[in-house]
Amino acid sequence: TQAAIRIFRTFASFPTQLSLLSHSRLNLFTKTSSWRRFIRSTTTSTTTRMTTNSEVDDRSRKAQLVTNPQLRHQVEVVASRCFIYAQTASIHSSRVAGLFDYGPMGCKLKNNILQHWRNHFILEEDMFEVECTVLTPEIVLRTSGHVEKFEDTMIHDVETLKCYRADHLLEETIDKLLTNPKLSEAKRSNLKSLRAKADSLSIDELHENLQTLQAKFPETGNAISKPYPFNLMFSTQIGPTGKTRAFLRPETAQGIFVNFQKLLEENRGQLPFAAAQIGLAFRNEISPRSGLLRVREFQMAEIEHFCVDEKDEDYHPKFESVQNVQMCFRSQKVQEMNAETVEMTVGEALQQKMISKQTLAYYMARTQLFLTDIGIDPFRLRFRQHLKSEMAHYAKDCWDAEIFTSYGWIECVGLADRACYDLERHSEVSGTPLVVHAKYPEPKIVEQFKPIVNFGLVGKTFGKRSKALKEKLDSLNKQELEALIASIPEEGSVDLVTCDDRFSLVKGMITGIKLEQKKVHEYTFTPSVVEPSFGIGRILYALLEHSFWVRDESPAVAAAIAENSSEVTNASAANDIKPAKKSKKSKKAKKTANPKSDVVIRTVFKFSPLVAPTTCAIIALITKDPKMTDLTLKFRRKLTKLRISSSLDSSGAIGRRYARIDERGTSFSVTFDKRTLEDQTITIRERDTMEQVRIPIDEMPNILQRLSVLDLSWDDLKQTYPLIRN
Questions:
Q1: What pLDDT does residue 61 have?
Q2: Is 419:357 a contact under the CB 8 Å cutoff?
Q3: Cβ–Cβ contacts within 10 Å for residue 245, how many?
Q4: Is 401 within 8 Å of 360 (Cβ atoms)?
Q5: Tens-place pLDDT, residues 45-72
Q6: Which label site among 131, 260, 474, 501 has the fewest CB atoms less than 10 Å from its CB?
Q7: How many CB atoms lie within 10 A of CB 43?
């Protein structure tokens, strides 16, 4: 009912949207998934734009590409040819899995994603940026709980001793069983439910289910061992003696927590504030696979937002600006019921207490906007809440931004309410209070229970250490003091342990408890933390799949892809993916041949100008004219001064140059032709529509700059400069 009301309100506000109610649109009411898409394409908010018919059709087409089992292979072929990324040391026979190198195009794409992340979060939210060491002393990660708890469950082949992740083996075993058409609906439903919670099962539950399903080691078919834990951190030693143990950090967050006091001083002791860090993290994955999605060294971008006192109502001053962002939620309740993903605004989700904090809800909405800004398809994006059984040891509430790829739903961003866990643990172990001092609006009279201490006996026994003992006793509440006094025996002693010392208390040192009244002007508290954590490599790979498309979409092309995807080759210097070569035929035979044999497929990466590796390609049709060469070089220098990335392409026919440029995701192409020498104008071509307009050279740099930051759209540019008609 609420969805229907929103639709009719939209129609009232935007009459042009009535055109969406075509016959094909009316048919969408009969299917749940199509109904949800209809709602999305016809509703809007103050923070999202209207969806046009062409965009709906385009997204439908891309959704079909995602379900194509050959999409992954096509993307990998083009990524390899363009050297977006490649396996480390691939020229050697003994390759190490889970390590990848980024090429020139991959580096540019990743850096542009990170730069937009900085603009979107650090600049807009006025955050502090820090850079902490990768090499982390053991005490830091032992305090945070990573040494004991940062682990996965592993099994091994009992004969070859090769290792594999236990939950992944369970998932793969279930996937094979689900392909059986004779499987009953009840059994199929139980298996799907088990697969959904595979990564949250305990060791005993994994062992029981693997035995029940008769799982075997994937590569050999041999029997497997009982599951056992494996810590994922890389350990090392600091210094020549090797006595100081350290780890390569598994996350960047701990560097921010141990510097909390300095960051608080930088913010003049005020809350809330946020600190961000971009850097490498390392995890010794058991069986890395799936390309960039599961690696041993990866780039992270993390934020730690320190909130106000938990006693006060959680509040983010900018939440109203995002409360109408429409999102897909898969809450704990939805997962337990095995129900459909729920669509609503983030404001509605917070109202229904689906999300624990307003600050967490704010960052979830901002994360959605960031991902869609860089080109992630919103129809393949959802937020899944962690089940209680899979919640991290530090998390009070946790959501994952999951993106759908050819590998299925992949966690790309984790958003956690870490409460006060990390700061309290580091305070306790280090002895340094990581707290905030806040003033009451008016002084308060508070009652405190204090121990009655025999300072003569205490001073005689502990000397200068007495002060530390008094501070410890003053920090205890009434119940703790009563328990301590009761535990002191008539003869002998009881130990009271602090962070730095141990005191042996005997009878007579503490004689009782007294109630004191005290006027206080301020109080201290440990702030809670909301943490968005972005896996840049996973986001980059998802973006490659979501941006990849084929220029020619005829049925012949689709059939050629399906039949020959395992043999796609670079047919020329352009981005032509052709079917594998077949035997030569006569001209007469070629005329009657299956049209699929002559198909040339033009592949394109449809990157947003915000993150495209190159904004503009410069093409000179007359390469041997000194005047033309001088013009192109001067033009490129102007672009460089404006920080607009560009490339020069001077070889091959113009069509093949465009094909090369499109494959690399370059947003615009500027062409210098014969007419340029006559009237000082050049053409600019938009990658996706292939439309061109002619513009004076002097105006082009500023236009490109506006196009690159989305300050000017291609449609608006066409209103000023007419299209070139071929």
A1: 40
A2: no
A3: 15
A4: no
A5: 333 333 333 444 444 444 443 445 688 8
A6: 131
A7: 21
pLDDT in tens, 546-565: 999 988 655 555 555 545 44
Cα dihedral 21, 25, 26, 32 in deg (nearest 10): -130
Q: What three-state secondary structure class fits 203?
A: helix
User: Residue 495 above 70 pLDDT?
Assistant: yes
In CATH terms, the fold of domain 442-523 is 3.30.720
Residue 33 burial (CB count, 10 A): 12
Residue from 350, 358, 351 nearest 317 by CA: 358
Burial of 531 (0-12, 13-18, 19+ CB in 10 A): buried
pLDDT in tens, 242-270: 889 999 999 999 999 999 999 999 999 99
Mean pLDDT of 348-356: 93
pLDDT at 23: 32
Cα dihedral: 569, 573, 577, 578 (round 10) = -80
SS3 326: strand
Q: How confident is the model over 139-153, as pLDDT tens digits?
A: 999 998 888 888 889
Neighbour tally for 607: CB within 10 Å: 24
Domain 151-231: state its class.
alpha beta
473-490: average pLDDT: 86
CB 488 within 8 A of CB 507: yes
pLDDT digits (tens, 9 = 90+) for 19-52: 333 333 333 333 333 333 333 333 333 333 333 3
pLDDT at 163 over 80: yes
Decide whether 151-231 matches 442-523 in CATH topology: no
pLDDT at 359 over 60: yes
The Cα 617–Cα 661 span in angstroms is 7
| Both structure tokens of 457 | 């006996």
Name residue, tokens 């997204």.
59
Q: Respond yes or no on whether the N-terminal peptide bond of residue 227 is cis (omega within 30° of 0).
A: no
Residues 6+ apart with CB under 8 A from 155: 163, 164, 165, 166, 169, 210, 217, 224, 225, 226, 227, 228
Q: Which amino acid is at 596?
A: K
Q: Which residues contact 342 (CB under 8 A, 6 or more apart)?
A: 328, 329, 330, 331, 334
Query: What is the C-alpha to C-alpha distance for residues 251 and 393, in angstroms, rounded to an integer?
Result: 14
Q: Measuring CA to CA, how many Å separate 10 from each of 5, 27, 57, 453?
A: 9, 20, 20, 72
In CATH, what number does 604-720 get? Answer: 3.40.50.800
Return the half-sphere exposure (C-beta side, CA atoms, 13 A cut-off) of residue 97: 10
Domain ranges for the chain: 1-43, 151-231, 442-523, 604-720
85 and 100 Cβ atoms separated by less than 8 Å: yes
Task: Return all residues near 338 (Cβ < 8 A) that are at least 6 apart.
Answer: 189, 192, 193, 196
Residue 301's closest CA among 107, 532, 529? 532
State the burial class of residue 345 (Cβ atoms within 10 Å of its Cβ: 0-12, 13-18, 19+).
Answer: buried
Which of 15-24, 367-376, 543-552, 663-672 is the least confident region? 15-24
The answer to pTM > 0.85 is no
At residue 461, what is the residue type?
T
